[in-house]
Design goal:
This protein is mainly β. The protein has one helix and 19 strands. It folds into two domains: about 35-120, no CATH class; about 125-210, no CATH class.
Length: about 220
């Protein structure tokens, strides 16, 4: 997986000159792309860029070479919403109503029979606040950044929680319990464009805030 971020325009670090008006124009937009290749079968992925014109599944995933199913968890019911791509059936079954925003995650079942290359293209969301609700839901880092939860500025939970990382066939649990010394077996780490589940058993919702500065 190869990731490049293209800094097209950044406040205090890049400026365009409008010659006819002799003034500088500043912008804080960062646009980039993430290349990720999925194996066959299930992967738990995340879109970490705001696409144009929207973050609908058809925009984010595009047109795969064969059958693909996207499954997005619905906490209220404990079930999954499905969006299925099948060219023989006319393309996407749910091209607009299923949305994959930065901070969310979904399963992709790659049934094409070969590796599935994905390219996420869009704007980096520099400031964000994700509500980690009580109970189970799927999440991701809003920023396309690899690292452990400390590097990703994940807050100290108000009580016990469990993070579930999908390893391709099952889930690896990472349990946070302050009374037991913190994270066990260690602080979870994630890759770029990787999703995960959190079971918030603390009894209290809490916010995961990111403010990613640009420029000096």
């Amino acid at each position: 997986m190869r990731t490049k971020t293209l800094l097209l325009t950044a406040a205090l670090s890049a400026a365009g000159v409008v010659s006819s008006m002799a003034q500088s124009v500043y912008s804080v937009n960062i646009v980039g792309y993430v290349n990720k290749t999925l194996g066959t079968g299930l992967s738990l992925i995340a879109n970490q860029l705001n696409h144009t014109p929207n973050n609908g599944v058809a925009t984010v995933i595009g047109t795969p070479s064969g059958p693909v199913t996207v499954s997005k968890f619905v906490p209220a019911t404990g079930n999954f919403d499905l969006a299925i791509y099948d060219v023989d059936a006319g393309g996407w079954s749910d091209p607009t109503s299923m949305v994959l925003n930065p901070g969310q995650a979904a399963f992709i079942d790659n049934a094409t029979g070969s590796p599935l290359p994905l390219t996420f293209v869009g704007e980096v969301q520099l400031n964000s606040s994700i509500n980690i609700a009580k109970g189970l839901d799927a999440y991701s880092s809003v920023i396309p950044q690899a690292g452990d939860f400390n590097a990703l500025q994940f807050p100290t939970p108000p009580g016990p929680i469990t993070v579930f990382k999908f390893n391709g066939s099952a889930f690896d649990p990472f349990i946070y319990d302050l009374d037991a010394g913190g994270w066990s077996p260690g602080v979870p780490s994630v890759a770029i464009a990787e999703g995960f589940f959190i079971d918030n058993g603390s009894g209290t919702a809490f916010a995961w805030n990111r403010n990613f500065p640009v420029g000096p």
